[in-house]
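Hello forum,

I keep getting stuck at the same step: I have a sequence, I want structure tokens, and every attempt I make locally crashes halfway through. Rather than fight my setup again tonight, could one of you with a working pipeline run this one for me? It's a single chain of 205 residues.
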Amino acid sequence: MIAIVDYGMGNVASVRTAFEQLGYEVEITDSIDRLEAASHIILPGVGSFQAAVQEIQERNLAEPLRKLAQEKPFLGICLGMQLLFDKGYENGVSDGLGLIPGEVTRIETTYILPHIGWNQLQIENDNQAFAAFQEKHVYFVHSFQARTAQKYLVATADYGTQVPGIVQNGHVYGMQFHPEKSGEVGVELLKVFLEETKSDRRQIV
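Reply #2:
Ran it on my machine without issues. Output:
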């Protein structure tokens, strides 16, 4: 069973549909017991970093999510990806989950924000698992971006600056775009995440 974390700020229905298209049982929940029973944890998100952190803390999910990320494949989507990092600077400074080293700041670009629409992925670090997605288009909606070391980058996009599109630390992954809104390419990206974490449970660092 794949568990989608329900903390009141996720585009959970379309995310659930995307995984169900791949033939998986999916449950939307904020129950720690149900999250612990899952094979994979999906953290979606729409809204601001600070508000998301507050919701997660109010539901006493922060520490359980950190623990689960050490044990199970974990995917953050859009705002959920941003929450994987140490800190966010949207509406003040807030602590993230600290699963990938880095911070989340406003995109420094001459282009109009928010970054909304289709953009091409550029695969980084010769990542063979995602090589087939070089220059494939995916759908973004965001004004803030992760700032992290090159070694954690799987794919980036150009929006007048380099914007991380996919990040990875062991079996913890993040996708800044919305795979569930990115058509067949998005579904295939989710499939790669599931396949890559099926047997590869590399420790996060």
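DSSP finds six helices and 14 strands in the chain. If your local run keeps crashing, start a new thread with the error log.
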